[in-house]
């Protein structure tokens, strides 16, 4: 087993066959976003309180796997790391995933990057430049709040570059993710799927509560007006970039409690497949015990 | 009130007079590290289970204050931010503070930096260069796992630079922290104070448990051999750099549960003094409701 640790574990849809959330939510051939009910709760038959209890129950196992992942990298025994990519329309619950799912992990081992509209400096580089710089280092769980996929979503919907440019990006992203996998990165791509009606309710809440005003932006309504175009752009991205090495998972997100549980379980199931191990001592334990006793 | 928000709230020992942990743990004139019992639990009369319950009970208030801090900065209404500096001997529990105290905050609003021995690039710059680059941006809670104080602790004990150099650094640090305060940074400096006996027990645990080997380094025993020198260096740092604007707090840390509670409360008490506010809407709420209704 020790010999295997330096090679990244395979993380394909096949390897996860036995696992319920990954199995239930993976985007396979013929997937249609418009056929998935945003209020569904695939792989979880329970109610809200059951889901909340399950979320809490998952914390310890993730915590231990995360510490092993970190430890083996610190010891130079592995380059494994995990990247969680979170995409979704405005109000789909990306912030809640950060707070209530990523927030349950050890912050010392987490690297969150929130991608906004590219800066002037970022615009001088190819679109994957800022993404590459934000990839997690060995041992870490990287989390992208938005990602390279904005470059085939808002960029496509808003015609921010010519079609000939964005249409090439799907293959560029696939090549990029393949190369990341070779470096030891297990990528878990999640789309939080909400309904247009639920978005309306969530935007209204932001307008009704003074403690939520800061989350509201008038531009949100402009994007909402292009809802159908976004669904088409998401469908294209899901079809073209759900690969063996980096499959997409579409998580119904009208029920926040379900979305949070599902994302946690997707991370957990992938960490199990990665199967990080405590590194062996790189010192002689008895010698060190004797030194300590004499100190 | 809106006018005041752009000015950082004062965070001095005086402003915190009414507050128990800050009051009980602040380093004032005549403070002697060797007179503080590392097993004491100042400002908290309860037992371990009470302390753990109190830690859990503090989460919601910190969470709300943290969100306000973040929100007001996002809205451009304030430059306030908090910097938690954590220092202590090996095994004093710095990692546990990150995991069990910082880990209870929203990770979207936290920036952790773990300072190791300076890299070649860092060595080409003045010692505060890498510190300045890691200061939290407005709205964030920055956390330093080790800090600029290593440059008057291990550097002094190990004679890594001439005495004429390190002896100037206390004033340089004070000037640096004063300037940080002017930019809106409230600095909370914590020393985790353990006994030499407790360190022995914790190192032994790392040598007894294969899941802890990765935390052990034979160099830890070399540093332990200089225990008294480190205590002298800490005493000097505490005396020379506990200022009105950035006081030190020494937290007895032989009991992990107490140290975690105390650090959480120190952060909480400072956030209360900072008193961040939800920013007002920068759009017309009724107009936006109408736009949403028509969307």
TrEMBL record, chains A, B:
Q: Where is the Polyphosphate kinase-2-related domain?
A: 61-277
- According to the record, the signal peptide region is none
Organism whose genome encodes this protein: Kineosphaera limosa NBRC 100340
Extract the GO molecular function terms from the UniProt entry. phosphotransferase activity, phosphate group as acceptor
Checking PANTHER family in the record gives: POLYPHOSPHATE:AMP PHOSPHOTRANSFERASE, POLYPHOSPHATE:AMP PHOSPHOTRANSFERASE-RELATED
Give any single GO term for biological process.
Answer: polyphosphate metabolic process
Write down the Pfam families for this protein, in alphabetical order: PPK2
What is this protein's record name?
A: Polyphosphate kinase-2-related domain-containing protein
> Which segments does the entry list as coiled coil?
none
Q: Which domain of life is it from?
A: Bacteria
